Amino acid sequence: xxxxxxxxxxxxxxxxxxxxxxxxxxxxxxxxxxxxxxxxxxxxxxxxxxxxxxxxxxxxxxxxxxxxxxxxxxxxxxxxxxxxxxxxxxxxxxxxxxxxxxxxxxx
Length: 107
Prior knowledge:
This protein is an alpha/beta fold. The protein has a single domain (4-105), classed as 2-Layer Sandwich (GMP Synthetase, Chain A, domain 3), CATH 3.30.300.130. The chain has 4 helices and 6 strands, in the order βαββαββαβα. A 4-stranded mixed β-sheet has the order 1-4-5-6. A two-stranded antiparallel ribbon has the order 2-3. Helix 3 (62-76) links the parallel strand 5 and strand 6. The longest helix has 15 residues, at 62-76.
């Protein structure tokens, strides 16, 4: 999982928290699915910028998933505003799934 960040410590905390956010159709969390591309922290502006994707552009649960990512990070980082940028470039593919995620899906 290659998540770009400007703060590795805070990103590690963020990604650990996002393990609780599931894609309800697949049953796997957004971190292991590889949906999170970048998490940057603007200390002065008290903002967190998350660039993420969905498994498809037409994901019927997209709003729910992005909302859960935002809410989860705002619960962990109380003083920061979380801004989500949804992108499909590059498009998500199965190669982004973590080793743990692959084990879960192949049970």
